[in-house]
Design goal:
The complex is a heterodimer of chains A (275) and B (290).
Chain A lengths: L2 H12 L4 H9 L6 H8 L2 E4 L12 E8 L2 E8 L5 H7 L6 H16 L4 E7 L6 H5 L2 H12 L6 E10 H5 L6 E5 L3 E3 L3 H9 L5 H7 L4 H6 L5 E3 L11 H19 L3 H13 L2
Parallel strand pairs in A: 3-4, 4-5, 5-6, 5-7, 6-8
Antiparallel strand pairs in A: 1-2, 2-3
Helix pairs in contact in A: 5-7, 9-10
Chain B lengths: L1 H23 L2 E3 L6 E3 H6 L15 H8 L6 E3 L14 H12 L5 E8 L2 E8 L10 H17 L3 E7 L7 H20 L4 E9 L1 H4 L8 E4 L10 H8 L10 H6 L5 E2 L2 H14 L2 E2 L2 E2 L1 H4 L1
Parallel strand pairs in B: 5-6, 6-7, 7-8, 8-9
Antiparallel strand pairs in B: 1-2, 3-4, 4-5, 10-11
Chain lengths: 275, 290
Protein backbone atom coordinates (compact mmCIF):
# COMPACT_ATOMS: atom_id res chain seq x y z
CA UNK A 1 0.00 0.00 0.00
CA UNK A 2 1.34 3.45 -0.90
CA UNK A 3 1.68 6.23 1.64
CA UNK A 4 -0.91 8.43 -0.05
CA UNK A 5 -3.40 5.59 0.23
CA UNK A 6 -2.66 5.36 3.96
CA UNK A 7 -3.43 9.04 4.33
CA UNK A 8 -6.60 8.64 2.32
CA UNK A 9 -7.67 5.77 4.54
CA UNK A 10 -7.14 7.83 7.68
CA UNK A 11 -9.31 10.54 6.22
CA UNK A 12 -11.99 8.02 5.39
CA UNK A 13 -12.28 7.05 9.05
CA UNK A 14 -13.28 10.53 10.07
CA UNK A 15 -16.47 10.93 8.04
CA UNK A 16 -19.35 8.94 6.69
CA UNK A 17 -18.30 7.07 3.62
CA UNK A 18 -20.11 7.28 0.31
CA UNK A 19 -21.37 4.10 -1.32
CA UNK A 20 -18.69 4.36 -3.99
CA UNK A 21 -15.96 4.65 -1.34
CA UNK A 22 -17.34 1.54 0.31
CA UNK A 23 -17.14 -0.25 -3.04
CA UNK A 24 -13.43 0.59 -3.13
CA UNK A 25 -12.93 -0.58 0.46
CA UNK A 26 -14.79 -3.84 -0.15
CA UNK A 27 -12.49 -4.51 -3.12
CA UNK A 28 -9.30 -3.42 -1.36
CA UNK A 29 -6.37 -5.77 -1.67
CA UNK A 30 -5.77 -5.53 2.10
CA UNK A 31 -9.36 -6.37 3.01
CA UNK A 32 -9.72 -9.36 5.34
CA UNK A 33 -10.67 -12.42 3.30
CA UNK A 34 -12.57 -15.60 4.21
CA UNK A 35 -9.46 -17.47 5.35
CA UNK A 36 -8.61 -14.58 7.76
CA UNK A 37 -12.04 -14.86 9.38
CA UNK A 38 -11.72 -18.63 9.63
CA UNK A 39 -8.33 -18.33 11.32
CA UNK A 40 -9.49 -15.76 13.86
CA UNK A 41 -13.00 -16.97 14.70
CA UNK A 42 -12.80 -20.75 14.92
CA UNK A 43 -10.88 -22.98 17.31
CA UNK A 44 -10.22 -25.69 14.72
CA UNK A 45 -10.62 -25.91 10.96
CA UNK A 46 -10.12 -28.78 8.57
CA UNK A 47 -10.25 -27.86 4.91
CA UNK A 48 -12.05 -30.24 2.54
CA UNK A 49 -11.76 -30.31 -1.22
CA UNK A 50 -13.53 -31.06 -4.48
CA UNK A 51 -16.97 -31.34 -6.04
CA UNK A 52 -16.59 -35.09 -6.90
CA UNK A 53 -17.53 -34.20 -10.48
CA UNK A 54 -14.80 -32.20 -12.12
CA UNK A 55 -12.12 -30.59 -9.94
CA UNK A 56 -11.37 -28.60 -6.80
CA UNK A 57 -12.16 -24.91 -7.30
CA UNK A 58 -9.74 -22.75 -5.32
CA UNK A 59 -12.05 -19.75 -5.34
CA UNK A 60 -14.25 -21.46 -2.76
CA UNK A 61 -12.80 -22.82 0.47
CA UNK A 62 -14.77 -25.03 2.80
CA UNK A 63 -14.46 -27.50 5.59
CA UNK A 64 -15.33 -28.44 9.15
CA UNK A 65 -14.63 -26.02 11.99
CA UNK A 66 -15.44 -25.77 15.65
CA UNK A 67 -16.42 -22.81 17.77
CA UNK A 68 -17.15 -22.89 21.50
CA UNK A 69 -17.25 -26.68 21.41
CA UNK A 70 -19.72 -26.93 18.54
CA UNK A 71 -18.88 -28.28 15.11
CA UNK A 72 -19.98 -26.30 12.07
CA UNK A 73 -19.38 -26.40 8.32
CA UNK A 74 -17.75 -23.27 6.96
CA UNK A 75 -17.78 -22.27 3.28
CA UNK A 76 -16.70 -19.06 1.60
CA UNK A 77 -15.33 -17.44 -1.53
CA UNK A 78 -11.61 -16.83 -1.24
CA UNK A 79 -9.73 -14.11 -3.10
CA UNK A 80 -5.97 -14.08 -3.62
CA UNK A 81 -3.78 -11.19 -2.49
CA UNK A 82 -1.53 -11.24 -5.54
CA UNK A 83 -1.47 -12.53 -9.07
CA UNK A 84 0.20 -15.77 -8.07
CA UNK A 85 -2.45 -16.56 -5.45
CA UNK A 86 -5.16 -15.58 -7.88
CA UNK A 87 -4.04 -18.23 -10.34
CA UNK A 88 -5.60 -20.57 -7.81
CA UNK A 89 -8.27 -18.26 -6.35
CA UNK A 90 -9.44 -16.69 -9.63
CA UNK A 91 -10.02 -13.38 -7.80
CA UNK A 92 -12.78 -15.03 -5.79
CA UNK A 93 -14.90 -15.72 -8.86
CA UNK A 94 -16.14 -19.32 -8.61
CA UNK A 95 -16.64 -21.73 -11.45
CA UNK A 96 -19.65 -24.07 -11.44
CA UNK A 97 -17.52 -26.70 -9.70
CA UNK A 98 -16.97 -24.23 -6.85
CA UNK A 99 -20.71 -23.95 -6.26
CA UNK A 100 -21.07 -27.72 -6.58
CA UNK A 101 -18.35 -28.21 -3.98
CA UNK A 102 -20.17 -25.78 -1.69
CA UNK A 103 -23.40 -27.70 -2.13
CA UNK A 104 -21.69 -31.03 -1.48
CA UNK A 105 -20.33 -29.67 1.79
CA UNK A 106 -23.73 -28.26 2.76
CA UNK A 107 -25.43 -31.62 2.16
CA UNK A 108 -22.71 -33.27 4.20
CA UNK A 109 -23.28 -30.76 7.01
CA UNK A 110 -27.00 -31.48 6.91
CA UNK A 111 -26.43 -35.23 7.14
CA UNK A 112 -24.23 -34.86 10.23
CA UNK A 113 -26.31 -32.07 11.75
CA UNK A 114 -23.70 -29.33 11.62
CA UNK A 115 -24.92 -25.73 11.20
CA UNK A 116 -23.52 -23.95 8.13
CA UNK A 117 -21.69 -20.64 8.10
CA UNK A 118 -20.95 -18.98 4.75
CA UNK A 119 -18.62 -16.07 4.09
CA UNK A 120 -19.56 -14.12 0.96
CA UNK A 121 -16.84 -12.23 -0.88
CA UNK A 122 -16.96 -12.34 -4.68
CA UNK A 123 -17.08 -9.88 -7.56
CA UNK A 124 -19.46 -12.43 -9.11
CA UNK A 125 -19.56 -15.92 -10.58
CA UNK A 126 -16.89 -16.34 -13.26
CA UNK A 127 -18.05 -15.34 -16.75
CA UNK A 128 -15.84 -17.46 -19.02
CA UNK A 129 -16.48 -19.96 -21.79
CA UNK A 130 -15.57 -22.98 -19.69
CA UNK A 131 -17.84 -21.79 -16.88
CA UNK A 132 -20.73 -21.57 -19.35
CA UNK A 133 -19.93 -24.97 -20.83
CA UNK A 134 -20.13 -26.60 -17.42
CA UNK A 135 -23.41 -24.86 -16.54
CA UNK A 136 -22.72 -21.80 -14.39
CA UNK A 137 -26.42 -20.92 -14.39
CA UNK A 138 -27.44 -24.42 -13.39
CA UNK A 139 -24.88 -24.57 -10.60
CA UNK A 140 -26.11 -21.35 -9.01
CA UNK A 141 -29.76 -22.27 -9.49
CA UNK A 142 -29.18 -25.68 -7.91
CA UNK A 143 -27.65 -24.07 -4.83
CA UNK A 144 -30.60 -21.70 -4.36
CA UNK A 145 -32.99 -24.61 -4.76
CA UNK A 146 -31.21 -27.06 -2.49
CA UNK A 147 -30.34 -24.50 0.19
CA UNK A 148 -34.08 -23.86 0.51
CA UNK A 149 -34.48 -27.41 1.81
CA UNK A 150 -31.40 -27.76 4.07
CA UNK A 151 -32.53 -28.82 7.53
CA UNK A 152 -29.72 -27.25 9.57
CA UNK A 153 -29.45 -23.51 10.27
CA UNK A 154 -27.50 -21.45 7.72
CA UNK A 155 -25.83 -18.12 8.46
CA UNK A 156 -24.31 -16.05 5.65
CA UNK A 157 -22.00 -13.12 6.29
CA UNK A 158 -21.13 -10.69 3.51
CA UNK A 159 -17.55 -9.65 4.35
CA UNK A 160 -16.44 -7.86 1.17
CA UNK A 161 -18.06 -7.87 -2.24
CA UNK A 162 -21.46 -9.50 -2.55
CA UNK A 163 -21.54 -9.77 -6.33
CA UNK A 164 -24.97 -10.75 -7.62
CA UNK A 165 -26.06 -14.36 -8.24
CA UNK A 166 -22.53 -15.56 -7.56
CA UNK A 167 -22.93 -14.24 -3.99
CA UNK A 168 -26.55 -15.32 -3.53
CA UNK A 169 -25.52 -18.91 -4.29
CA UNK A 170 -24.06 -18.94 -0.75
CA UNK A 171 -26.71 -16.60 0.61
CA UNK A 172 -30.02 -18.47 0.97
CA UNK A 173 -29.65 -18.43 4.74
CA UNK A 174 -31.76 -18.14 7.89
CA UNK A 175 -29.93 -14.91 8.63
CA UNK A 176 -27.69 -12.72 6.50
CA UNK A 177 -25.26 -10.33 8.17
CA UNK A 178 -23.05 -7.74 6.58
CA UNK A 179 -19.84 -5.99 7.52
CA UNK A 180 -20.34 -2.24 7.62
CA UNK A 181 -18.10 -1.58 4.62
CA UNK A 182 -19.18 -4.58 2.58
CA UNK A 183 -21.46 -4.26 -0.45
CA UNK A 184 -24.14 -6.57 -1.83
CA UNK A 185 -25.46 -5.77 -5.28
CA UNK A 186 -27.39 -6.96 -8.29
CA UNK A 187 -24.40 -6.14 -10.49
CA UNK A 188 -21.20 -4.11 -10.18
CA UNK A 189 -21.87 -0.35 -10.26
CA UNK A 190 -19.80 -0.25 -13.46
CA UNK A 191 -22.04 -2.87 -15.08
CA UNK A 192 -25.18 -1.16 -13.82
CA UNK A 193 -24.11 2.22 -15.26
CA UNK A 194 -23.12 0.59 -18.51
CA UNK A 195 -26.48 -1.19 -18.92
CA UNK A 196 -28.79 1.61 -17.83
CA UNK A 197 -26.87 4.68 -18.91
CA UNK A 198 -24.51 3.21 -21.53
CA UNK A 199 -21.62 4.75 -19.61
CA UNK A 200 -19.57 2.71 -17.16
CA UNK A 201 -17.78 5.88 -16.03
CA UNK A 202 -20.90 6.82 -14.10
CA UNK A 203 -20.25 3.93 -11.71
CA UNK A 204 -19.93 6.25 -8.73
CA UNK A 205 -23.35 7.70 -9.37
CA UNK A 206 -24.74 4.20 -9.86
CA UNK A 207 -23.32 3.06 -6.52
CA UNK A 208 -25.18 5.85 -4.75
CA UNK A 209 -28.57 4.96 -6.21
CA UNK A 210 -28.33 1.14 -6.18
CA UNK A 211 -28.74 0.68 -2.40
CA UNK A 212 -25.78 -1.66 -1.97
CA UNK A 213 -24.40 -0.63 1.43
CA UNK A 214 -25.01 -2.54 4.65
CA UNK A 215 -27.18 0.13 6.28
CA UNK A 216 -29.33 0.63 3.18
CA UNK A 217 -29.83 -3.12 2.85
CA UNK A 218 -30.76 -3.45 6.50
CA UNK A 219 -33.45 -0.84 5.88
CA UNK A 220 -34.69 -2.82 2.87
CA UNK A 221 -34.80 -5.98 5.01
CA UNK A 222 -32.17 -7.79 2.92
CA UNK A 223 -29.85 -8.27 5.94
CA UNK A 224 -30.56 -8.80 9.64
CA UNK A 225 -27.42 -7.35 11.18
CA UNK A 226 -24.73 -4.86 10.29
CA UNK A 227 -21.35 -5.63 11.88
CA UNK A 228 -19.63 -2.43 12.93
CA UNK A 229 -16.15 -1.60 11.55
CA UNK A 230 -14.27 0.97 13.61
CA UNK A 231 -11.94 1.35 10.66
CA UNK A 232 -11.96 -0.49 7.32
CA UNK A 233 -11.11 -4.07 8.24
CA UNK A 234 -7.89 -5.58 6.88
CA UNK A 235 -6.09 -8.86 7.35
CA UNK A 236 -3.91 -7.07 9.95
CA UNK A 237 -6.56 -5.40 12.12
CA UNK A 238 -9.37 -7.96 11.89
CA UNK A 239 -8.98 -9.49 15.38
CA UNK A 240 -11.48 -7.13 17.05
CA UNK A 241 -14.22 -7.64 14.49
CA UNK A 242 -13.58 -11.39 14.52
CA UNK A 243 -13.94 -11.52 18.33
CA UNK A 244 -17.25 -9.71 18.02
CA UNK A 245 -18.36 -12.06 15.21
CA UNK A 246 -17.36 -15.09 17.28
CA UNK A 247 -19.69 -14.01 20.09
CA UNK A 248 -22.51 -13.31 17.66
CA UNK A 249 -22.02 -16.67 15.93
CA UNK A 250 -22.14 -18.47 19.30
CA UNK A 251 -25.41 -16.65 20.05
CA UNK A 252 -26.78 -17.58 16.62
CA UNK A 253 -25.97 -21.26 17.20
CA UNK A 254 -27.61 -21.16 20.65
CA UNK A 255 -30.72 -19.53 19.27
CA UNK A 256 -31.17 -22.23 16.61
CA UNK A 257 -30.34 -25.19 18.84
CA UNK A 258 -33.89 -25.20 20.20
CA UNK A 259 -35.58 -25.20 16.80
CA UNK A 260 -36.87 -28.23 14.93
CA UNK A 261 -35.75 -29.05 11.38
CA UNK A 262 -39.17 -28.07 10.09
CA UNK A 263 -38.99 -24.70 11.84
CA UNK A 264 -35.55 -24.02 10.42
CA UNK A 265 -36.68 -24.72 6.85
CA UNK A 266 -39.98 -22.86 7.23
CA UNK A 267 -38.36 -19.77 8.73
CA UNK A 268 -35.88 -19.64 5.86
CA UNK A 269 -38.73 -20.01 3.38
CA UNK A 270 -40.65 -17.14 4.95
CA UNK A 271 -37.52 -15.01 5.10
CA UNK A 272 -37.19 -15.07 1.31
CA UNK A 273 -40.94 -15.26 0.63
CA UNK A 274 -41.41 -11.70 1.89
CA UNK A 275 -39.42 -10.09 -0.96
CA UNK B 1 -33.26 20.14 -56.55
CA UNK B 2 -37.00 20.10 -56.71
CA UNK B 3 -36.89 16.67 -58.25
CA UNK B 4 -34.67 15.29 -55.54
CA UNK B 5 -36.88 16.49 -52.77
CA UNK B 6 -39.87 15.08 -54.52
CA UNK B 7 -37.98 11.87 -55.08
CA UNK B 8 -37.21 11.70 -51.42
CA UNK B 9 -40.75 12.56 -50.55
CA UNK B 10 -42.24 9.89 -52.72
CA UNK B 11 -39.76 7.41 -51.37
CA UNK B 12 -40.91 8.36 -47.93
CA UNK B 13 -44.51 7.90 -48.89
CA UNK B 14 -43.73 4.44 -50.19
CA UNK B 15 -41.82 3.68 -47.00
CA UNK B 16 -44.72 4.90 -44.94
CA UNK B 17 -47.07 2.78 -46.97
CA UNK B 18 -44.95 -0.27 -46.37
CA UNK B 19 -44.67 0.52 -42.69
CA UNK B 20 -48.43 0.92 -42.54
CA UNK B 21 -48.86 -2.40 -44.27
CA UNK B 22 -46.51 -3.97 -41.78
CA UNK B 23 -48.26 -2.47 -38.80
CA UNK B 24 -51.62 -3.38 -40.20
CA UNK B 25 -50.18 -6.84 -40.23
CA UNK B 26 -50.69 -8.02 -43.80
CA UNK B 27 -46.97 -8.51 -44.30
CA UNK B 28 -43.99 -8.64 -42.03
CA UNK B 29 -40.26 -8.63 -42.52
CA UNK B 30 -38.18 -11.52 -41.25
CA UNK B 31 -35.26 -10.15 -39.23
CA UNK B 32 -33.12 -13.14 -40.16
CA UNK B 33 -33.51 -13.37 -43.97
CA UNK B 34 -34.92 -9.87 -44.59
CA UNK B 35 -37.70 -11.30 -46.74
CA UNK B 36 -41.15 -9.74 -46.64
CA UNK B 37 -43.51 -12.57 -45.78
CA UNK B 38 -47.28 -12.92 -45.41
CA UNK B 39 -48.32 -12.61 -41.79
CA UNK B 40 -50.99 -15.20 -42.38
CA UNK B 41 -48.36 -17.73 -43.45
CA UNK B 42 -46.27 -16.86 -40.43
CA UNK B 43 -49.16 -17.46 -38.05
CA UNK B 44 -50.04 -20.70 -39.77
CA UNK B 45 -46.46 -21.86 -39.28
CA UNK B 46 -46.65 -20.98 -35.57
CA UNK B 47 -44.65 -17.78 -35.94
CA UNK B 48 -41.81 -19.37 -37.86
CA UNK B 49 -40.54 -17.67 -41.03
CA UNK B 50 -41.97 -19.57 -44.05
CA UNK B 51 -38.87 -18.60 -46.02
CA UNK B 52 -35.91 -19.39 -43.74
CA UNK B 53 -37.34 -21.14 -40.67
CA UNK B 54 -36.37 -18.34 -38.26
CA UNK B 55 -38.31 -18.32 -34.99
CA UNK B 56 -40.07 -15.02 -34.37
CA UNK B 57 -40.53 -13.95 -30.78
CA UNK B 58 -44.14 -14.39 -29.75
CA UNK B 59 -46.34 -12.67 -27.22
CA UNK B 60 -47.51 -14.62 -24.17
CA UNK B 61 -51.04 -14.82 -25.56
CA UNK B 62 -49.79 -16.17 -28.89
CA UNK B 63 -47.71 -18.73 -26.99
CA UNK B 64 -50.63 -19.82 -24.83
CA UNK B 65 -52.75 -20.08 -27.98
CA UNK B 66 -50.20 -22.45 -29.50
CA UNK B 67 -49.97 -24.90 -26.59
CA UNK B 68 -53.23 -24.79 -24.62
CA UNK B 69 -56.68 -26.18 -25.44
CA UNK B 70 -58.59 -23.24 -26.83
CA UNK B 71 -60.57 -21.29 -24.26
CA UNK B 72 -59.00 -23.15 -21.32
CA UNK B 73 -56.74 -20.36 -19.99
CA UNK B 74 -57.57 -18.64 -16.73
CA UNK B 75 -55.17 -15.83 -15.82
CA UNK B 76 -53.89 -15.36 -12.24
CA UNK B 77 -52.60 -12.24 -10.43
CA UNK B 78 -53.00 -9.95 -13.43
CA UNK B 79 -53.09 -6.70 -11.51
CA UNK B 80 -50.10 -6.72 -9.15
CA UNK B 81 -48.60 -3.27 -9.18
CA UNK B 82 -44.89 -2.73 -9.90
CA UNK B 83 -42.98 -1.07 -7.05
CA UNK B 84 -39.93 1.17 -7.21
CA UNK B 85 -37.69 0.03 -4.34
CA UNK B 86 -34.68 2.15 -5.41
CA UNK B 87 -36.83 5.20 -6.24
CA UNK B 88 -35.16 4.88 -9.62
CA UNK B 89 -35.85 7.99 -11.70
CA UNK B 90 -38.53 7.61 -14.40
CA UNK B 91 -39.04 3.91 -13.58
CA UNK B 92 -42.80 4.19 -13.03
CA UNK B 93 -43.13 6.09 -16.30
CA UNK B 94 -41.16 3.43 -18.12
CA UNK B 95 -43.40 0.70 -16.73
CA UNK B 96 -46.52 2.64 -17.74
CA UNK B 97 -45.16 3.06 -21.26
CA UNK B 98 -44.33 -0.65 -21.47
CA UNK B 99 -47.82 -1.54 -20.30
CA UNK B 100 -49.31 0.67 -22.95
CA UNK B 101 -47.08 -0.69 -25.73
CA UNK B 102 -47.53 -4.37 -24.92
CA UNK B 103 -50.97 -4.55 -23.34
CA UNK B 104 -49.33 -6.60 -20.58
CA UNK B 105 -49.16 -5.60 -16.91
CA UNK B 106 -45.67 -7.09 -16.42
CA UNK B 107 -43.06 -9.28 -18.11
CA UNK B 108 -44.79 -12.58 -17.29
CA UNK B 109 -48.32 -13.92 -17.71
CA UNK B 110 -49.33 -16.71 -15.33
CA UNK B 111 -52.41 -18.84 -14.82
CA UNK B 112 -53.79 -22.27 -15.49
CA UNK B 113 -54.97 -24.02 -18.61
CA UNK B 114 -55.36 -27.41 -20.20
CA UNK B 115 -53.29 -29.41 -22.66
CA UNK B 116 -55.31 -32.25 -24.16
CA UNK B 117 -57.65 -31.91 -21.19
CA UNK B 118 -54.83 -32.15 -18.61
CA UNK B 119 -54.86 -29.21 -16.25
CA UNK B 120 -51.58 -27.40 -15.64
CA UNK B 121 -50.26 -24.17 -14.15
CA UNK B 122 -48.51 -22.24 -16.88
CA UNK B 123 -46.41 -19.09 -17.14
CA UNK B 124 -45.04 -17.29 -20.18
CA UNK B 125 -42.45 -14.52 -20.08
CA UNK B 126 -42.38 -11.75 -22.64
CA UNK B 127 -39.25 -10.34 -24.29
CA UNK B 128 -41.24 -7.27 -25.32
CA UNK B 129 -41.69 -6.10 -21.74
CA UNK B 130 -38.31 -4.68 -20.64
CA UNK B 131 -36.52 -7.68 -22.16
CA UNK B 132 -38.45 -10.05 -19.90
CA UNK B 133 -36.40 -8.86 -16.96
CA UNK B 134 -37.27 -10.24 -13.51
CA UNK B 135 -38.31 -7.72 -10.91
CA UNK B 136 -40.45 -8.13 -7.82
CA UNK B 137 -43.72 -8.59 -9.70
CA UNK B 138 -42.32 -11.16 -12.11
CA UNK B 139 -40.87 -13.07 -9.14
CA UNK B 140 -44.09 -12.73 -7.15
CA UNK B 141 -46.34 -13.90 -9.99
CA UNK B 142 -44.15 -16.93 -10.65
CA UNK B 143 -43.93 -17.75 -6.93
CA UNK B 144 -47.71 -17.46 -6.47
CA UNK B 145 -48.27 -19.65 -9.51
CA UNK B 146 -45.91 -22.33 -8.19
CA UNK B 147 -47.38 -22.18 -4.66
CA UNK B 148 -50.91 -22.46 -6.02
CA UNK B 149 -49.82 -25.41 -8.17
CA UNK B 150 -48.36 -27.05 -5.06
CA UNK B 151 -51.66 -26.60 -3.20
CA UNK B 152 -53.81 -27.81 -6.08
CA UNK B 153 -51.50 -30.66 -7.08
CA UNK B 154 -50.87 -29.24 -10.55
CA UNK B 155 -47.75 -29.48 -12.72
CA UNK B 156 -45.99 -26.26 -13.72
CA UNK B 157 -44.91 -25.32 -17.25
CA UNK B 158 -42.86 -22.15 -17.60
CA UNK B 159 -41.77 -20.60 -20.90
CA UNK B 160 -38.65 -18.65 -19.98
CA UNK B 161 -37.52 -15.63 -21.93
CA UNK B 162 -35.48 -13.00 -20.16
CA UNK B 163 -32.39 -10.84 -20.21
CA UNK B 164 -32.02 -11.50 -16.47
CA UNK B 165 -32.63 -9.45 -13.35
CA UNK B 166 -34.45 -6.10 -13.48
CA UNK B 167 -31.62 -3.64 -12.80
CA UNK B 168 -33.95 -0.82 -11.77
CA UNK B 169 -35.10 -2.83 -8.73
CA UNK B 170 -31.59 -3.56 -7.44
CA UNK B 171 -31.23 -6.16 -4.70
CA UNK B 172 -34.98 -6.74 -4.47
CA UNK B 173 -34.70 -8.15 -7.96
CA UNK B 174 -31.85 -10.50 -6.97
CA UNK B 175 -33.96 -11.86 -4.10
CA UNK B 176 -36.56 -13.07 -6.61
CA UNK B 177 -34.08 -15.74 -7.71
CA UNK B 178 -34.11 -17.25 -4.22
CA UNK B 179 -37.86 -16.76 -3.77
CA UNK B 180 -38.86 -18.53 -7.00
CA UNK B 181 -36.30 -21.33 -6.57
CA UNK B 182 -37.45 -22.20 -3.06
CA UNK B 183 -41.10 -22.27 -4.18
CA UNK B 184 -40.10 -24.76 -6.90
CA UNK B 185 -38.27 -26.87 -4.31
CA UNK B 186 -41.45 -27.15 -2.23
CA UNK B 187 -43.47 -27.95 -5.37
CA UNK B 188 -41.01 -30.69 -6.25
CA UNK B 189 -41.01 -32.08 -2.69
CA UNK B 190 -44.73 -32.78 -3.05
CA UNK B 191 -43.99 -34.92 -6.11
CA UNK B 192 -45.19 -32.49 -8.75
CA UNK B 193 -43.69 -32.01 -12.20
CA UNK B 194 -42.01 -28.83 -13.42
CA UNK B 195 -41.16 -28.38 -17.09
CA UNK B 196 -39.17 -25.33 -18.10
CA UNK B 197 -39.03 -24.34 -21.75
CA UNK B 198 -36.14 -22.06 -22.69
CA UNK B 199 -36.84 -19.63 -25.50
CA UNK B 200 -34.73 -16.91 -27.07
CA UNK B 201 -33.13 -15.38 -25.05
CA UNK B 202 -32.82 -16.93 -21.57
CA UNK B 203 -29.92 -15.40 -19.66
CA UNK B 204 -28.65 -13.99 -16.36
CA UNK B 205 -30.63 -14.35 -13.14
CA UNK B 206 -33.40 -16.32 -14.81
CA UNK B 207 -30.94 -18.93 -16.10
CA UNK B 208 -29.36 -18.97 -12.63
CA UNK B 209 -32.71 -19.75 -11.01
CA UNK B 210 -35.98 -21.26 -12.27
CA UNK B 211 -34.96 -21.74 -15.93
CA UNK B 212 -32.43 -24.45 -15.09
CA UNK B 213 -34.49 -26.16 -12.35
CA UNK B 214 -36.98 -28.12 -14.45
CA UNK B 215 -37.46 -31.85 -13.92
CA UNK B 216 -37.45 -31.60 -17.68
CA UNK B 217 -35.79 -28.75 -19.55
CA UNK B 218 -36.83 -28.16 -23.16
CA UNK B 219 -35.62 -25.46 -25.51
CA UNK B 220 -36.62 -23.95 -28.83
CA UNK B 221 -34.15 -24.39 -31.70
CA UNK B 222 -31.28 -21.88 -31.79
CA UNK B 223 -32.44 -20.05 -28.64
CA UNK B 224 -29.65 -18.16 -26.88
CA UNK B 225 -29.27 -19.62 -23.38
CA UNK B 226 -26.57 -18.70 -20.89
CA UNK B 227 -25.64 -17.23 -17.55
CA UNK B 228 -23.42 -14.39 -18.72
CA UNK B 229 -24.34 -12.61 -21.93
CA UNK B 230 -22.04 -13.16 -24.94
CA UNK B 231 -20.64 -9.61 -24.78
CA UNK B 232 -19.72 -9.93 -21.11
CA UNK B 233 -17.87 -13.19 -21.79
CA UNK B 234 -16.00 -11.67 -24.73
CA UNK B 235 -14.94 -8.77 -22.52
CA UNK B 236 -13.81 -11.17 -19.80
CA UNK B 237 -11.74 -13.50 -21.95
CA UNK B 238 -10.72 -10.91 -24.57
CA UNK B 239 -11.60 -13.09 -27.51
CA UNK B 240 -14.49 -13.69 -29.87
CA UNK B 241 -16.92 -16.47 -29.08
CA UNK B 242 -17.28 -19.27 -31.62
CA UNK B 243 -20.39 -19.49 -33.75
CA UNK B 244 -23.28 -21.17 -31.96
CA UNK B 245 -21.83 -20.74 -28.45
CA UNK B 246 -24.71 -20.66 -25.90
CA UNK B 247 -27.25 -21.86 -28.47
CA UNK B 248 -29.85 -24.44 -27.48
CA UNK B 249 -27.91 -26.95 -29.60
CA UNK B 250 -24.72 -26.14 -27.67
CA UNK B 251 -26.47 -26.71 -24.34
CA UNK B 252 -27.93 -29.99 -25.53
CA UNK B 253 -24.46 -31.17 -26.56
CA UNK B 254 -23.06 -30.19 -23.14
CA UNK B 255 -25.76 -32.06 -21.26
CA UNK B 256 -27.57 -29.04 -19.87
CA UNK B 257 -31.03 -29.61 -21.37
CA UNK B 258 -33.21 -32.62 -22.15
CA UNK B 259 -34.47 -31.84 -25.60
CA UNK B 260 -34.84 -29.28 -28.37
CA UNK B 261 -38.46 -29.11 -29.47
CA UNK B 262 -39.83 -27.30 -32.50
CA UNK B 263 -42.79 -25.01 -32.08
CA UNK B 264 -44.85 -27.28 -34.26
CA UNK B 265 -44.35 -30.22 -31.91
CA UNK B 266 -44.31 -28.37 -28.58
CA UNK B 267 -47.93 -29.02 -27.60
CA UNK B 268 -47.66 -32.74 -28.40
CA UNK B 269 -44.39 -33.08 -26.47
CA UNK B 270 -45.81 -31.30 -23.42
CA UNK B 271 -48.89 -33.50 -23.54
CA UNK B 272 -46.73 -36.64 -23.67
CA UNK B 273 -44.56 -35.48 -20.77
CA UNK B 274 -47.57 -34.59 -18.59
CA UNK B 275 -49.24 -37.89 -19.34
CA UNK B 276 -46.10 -39.95 -18.77
CA UNK B 277 -45.56 -38.24 -15.41
CA UNK B 278 -48.90 -39.45 -14.14
CA UNK B 279 -51.25 -36.58 -14.97
CA UNK B 280 -54.61 -37.27 -16.59
CA UNK B 281 -57.53 -35.26 -17.86
CA UNK B 282 -59.26 -35.79 -14.51
CA UNK B 283 -56.29 -34.93 -12.28
CA UNK B 284 -53.25 -36.81 -11.14
CA UNK B 285 -53.23 -40.60 -11.36
CA UNK B 286 -53.49 -42.87 -8.34
CA UNK B 287 -50.22 -44.65 -9.08
CA UNK B 288 -48.27 -41.47 -8.36
CA UNK B 289 -50.16 -40.53 -5.20
CA UNK B 290 -50.37 -43.99 -3.73
Amino acid sequence: MTESMEVEKDELKKRTLTAWEKVQIARDNDRAYTQDYINHIFDQFMKLHGDRLFRDDGSIVGGIASVDGQFVTVIGQQKGRNLKENEKRNFGMPYPEGYRKALRLMKQAEKFNRPIICFIDTPGAYCGMDAEERGQGEAIARNLYEMAGIKVPILSIVIGEGGSGGALALGVANEVWMLENATYSILSPEGFASILWKDSKRAGEAAECMKITAHELKELGIVEQVINEEEPITNINCQGVCDCLREKIIDFLKKYRGKTKEEIVEERYQRFRKY
Amino acid sequence: MLFRTQGRKSKKIIENYHRQQLTEGLFQKCEACNQIVYTEDVIEKKHVCPNCGHYFRVTPMERLGMVLDSGSFEEWDKDLKTKNPLDFPEYEKKIARMQQNTGLSEAVVTGKGKIGGIETAIGVMSANFMMGSMGMIVGEKITRMVERATQKGLPVILFCCSGGARMQEGMMSLMQMAKTSQALKHHSDTGQLYISVLTDPTTGGVTASFAMLGDLILAEPKALIGFAGPRVIEQTIHQKLPEGFQSAEFLLEHGMIDKIVSRKKMRKVLYFLLQSSGYHANGKGEEKNG
